[in-house]
Structures are given as C-alpha cells and as structure tokens.
Amino acid sequence: MSPRGEHELGSDGGSIRPSDSTSETTMIKPNRKLYIAMAKKDTVDYVYNTSALEGNAMIYSEVQTLLEGITVGGHKLSDENMILNQNRSMKLLFELLDKYSFDDNKNTICMLHKEVAKEEALTWGKFRQSNVRIGGTEFLPPSYDKLDDI
User: N or C: which end of the chain has fewer CB atoms below 10 A?
Assistant: First the structure.
C-alpha cells in the first residue's frame, strides 16, 4: 500500500490491490452490496450537495424533510423540483445497479438526465444540440457534435 493508502483496480477490473507495486499482492474483492447500501444511505447528502452546487437555497434539514414527503414552505417550486428530480435520478441509478443493468452508455446517461433535468432544462433525456459554458471556470465541455463519440 502506498504511504497515502491508495488502491487501484486489479487487472481483472473487479478486485482492488494496493497501488504501491512493491507491496504484497493481496487482492481484496469489493463488497458490491455494501457499497450500494452505503451510497443509498448518503442519498440525502448527495441530493443536498448537488442541488446546492446549482444554487438551490434549501438547507440540509429542508432537503431531508422534502425527501421524507413533507412539503417545505418559503422556497421556490423550482428548488423543490430540483431536489425531487435529483432524488428520482438516484432511485433510478440504484434500481439499475440493483438489477445489474447499469451500463455506462448513452442510453443510461440519457435516462438519468431525463430524471435530473425534467422541467428544468430546455430539453431532457437527450444530448444537447449546442455548445455550453460553465460559469466561473475556464473549462470548456466537449462540443455537442462530439458527444456521441465519447
């Protein structure tokens, strides 16, 4: 194991080994069900943080309350919808993972985007048809005409 405790995937793509090649070759099989359960437990954190990055004004406890099915007063409907969309996309992701039917491909990305961007973006559930910029950064996302190739 490296001094920082880093790990990397083994050559079989499913096992984990210490990233320091001079260390022992002990292979650790990941516990898929445990990782999914841990991610599900952190859903409120994920939904809160991703929504906050988009400028959502709800505080953590309000997000938690809304995800429990109780309305929260004093916020824009668009903020509530953003929270609910993020939560629906997480439920879809976990459903795909639970059924071993998650594929890292255009169809899956578009299905998740359809849930996240519903009634927020100009279009949802498909790749954009124009170039975009990300405010506050110099990073340029890939050109829209290159997305199918990624």
Answer: C
Residue type, 125: G
How far apart CA 42 and CA 47 sit, in angstroms, is 9
Distance from C-alpha of 67 to C-alpha of 50, rounded to nearest angstrom: 14
Q: Which amino acid is at 82?
A: M
pTM of the model: 0.73
Q: How far apart are the first and last CA of the chain?
A: 33
Confidence category of residue 146, pLDDT binned at 50, 70, 90: very high
- Say if residue 25 is in the same domain as residue 46: no
Range of the domain at 126: 31-149
What are 58-93's pLDDT values in tens digits?
A: 999 999 999 999 999 999 999 999 999 999 999 999
Residue 64: CATH number of its domain: 1.10.3290.10
